[in-house]
Amino acid sequence: MHKFDQLPGELIWSICAHLCRNQKGDLSSVGQLSTLNKRFKRSVNNFTTHLRFKRQIFLLNDGDCLFQKILSVFSNVHSLDMSLHYDNLKIETLAMVFQQCPNLRAIDLRGSRGHHLHLHRLQSLMTFDLPSENGVSMPLIKSFKARYLTDSDLSVILSIFPNLEDLWLEECQWMSNCSGITNLQSIQRLRITNHPHLPKTTVHEISLLPRLSQLDLSSTSLDDEGMQIIATNMLNLSNLILSGCKLSDLGISFICQSKVGPNIRSLDISYCKQLTDCSLFHIASKLKYLQFLNLRSCLQITDKGIDNISLMNIYLLHLDLSNCFQVTDTGIKFLCHRCQYLKNLNVSGSNVSDEGMLYLSESKNKIQKIQIYSCGKVTKKGLEYLSKGLSLIHISEPTRLRRIS
Q1: Exposed, middle or buried, 11 (CB in 10 Å: 0-12/13-18/19+)?
Q2: What secondary structure does DSSP assign to 320-351, as a single string?
Q3: Residues of the chain falling short of pLDDT 50
Q4: By C-alpha distance, which of 318, 309, 378 is closest to 348?
Q5: For 259, which DSSP code?
Q6: Which of 85, 179, 331, 359 is the most buried (most CB within 10 A)?
Q7: Which pTM value belongs to this model?
Q8: Contact 111, 84 (CB under 8 A)
Q9: Vertex 184, ends 179 and 187: CA angle to 5°?
């Protein structure tokens, strides 16, 4: 434990209050004050617009008491980030946060386990002072992030924060369903991860959200049938993250051939190990304006699939082929000759060699960064090729990471 962690909570609060008065309530420049301890500066920097609690503060024995006093000073906080470890957060303290911070718009509770926090008690503890259109006062939270929620926790969150635009639900193994999500008519970004038994009814509810533009269902049980539901009903999606889902080429064809297909700008299908080059053919032929594609650990992807992508997806900016061990120098050649806007390429763990590095160094596209960790066939000669044409190169070695500029 650092000496800073042993400072009395009263002292830290007094410093915060003094700085708040001196800065007229704005601590956005606290990080520039040379008299402050470095760790303390990191802890209180940007309190006004984004309050991020570092673990050091909450190691204090009087952490909850300190928390309440800090909030009494910084009542104009817009964003509260407790994504670091804070398992001792009490639901009474959280209710106090919403009542004392009328300008709060975003809160991140991923550092606390939701089922230990008992969020389902939140509604009964809150007495709102904020006016609303229907006469019932409620906080105007736009972004909510949490982990390990239960069904009852989610039900309360959806009822008291109906204007959410950004909802992250991580580690959802404690939830049987996500009923009530259709009430979030303003939601634009939704993340539900690690749900081992995602019901089709929940997928259908998600597909009915009218303004949803970004959807992340990583490591859920989403399959081809669920993908068909999403593809049929959703029209505004631009960012789709399906990493680790149980999809086959058929599921990818549904999204590519749907009406939303041309709108997709970013697609993450990493760790979908059933996908083959057939999926890349569908992507190449239908997702013409795709800019970001993540194929990490799609083990059945070959140079043939890369040929299709490079031929038709000319606007591609970022491509991740890491651990696609069937991709060789031939695939790299296709990318170099055709993808003129490509900026970021990851071929770590692939089967490329010095020949592929030569293609990259001679290409006329705009590649700015390439990652080649664990490429056993790339030697010093290949690095010399790259150093002439690219601005940033990464390569992993047995004992350290080398960076060559």
Answers
A1: exposed
A2: E-TT-TT--HHHHHHHHHH-TT--EEE-TTSS
A3: 1-5, 10, 21-63, 128-137, 396-405
A4: 378
A5: T
A6: 331
A7: 0.81
A8: yes
A9: 120
